[in-house]
């Protein structure tokens, strides 16, 4: 009988430990999702800062020439894609 009580006690402890671990995993998943959301917020803020900076400085300041060139290339590709999309719609 003592073996059954001991086995029952071990099973209960394992179950409680498992529930605690599941709770930790759930909280960990929530925190990871929160961080992903905050990373997206940060990207939006950086994009807004960059947009405002480029509007205030249409000529690239020293050290920013490469970034401005990359932005011009991206904008040109976007415009080319828009034109192709427009032609496909016709």
The best one-word shape is: elongated
Total of DSSP H or I helical runs spanning 4+ residues: 2
Domain module count: 2
Helical residue percent band: over 70%
Q: Kindly, what is the distance between the CA atoms of the first and last residues, rounded to a whole number of angstroms?
A: 84 Å
The multimeric state of the shown protein is single chain
Question: What is the strand tally?
Answer: 0
In the predicted model, the low-confidence regions spanning at least 5 consecutive residues are: none
Give a written overview of the molecule.
There is one protein chain. The protein has 90 residues and is an all-alpha fold. It has two domains: 56 residues; 32 residues. 89% of the residues lie in helices and 0% in strands. It is elongated. The N and C termini lie far apart (84 Å).
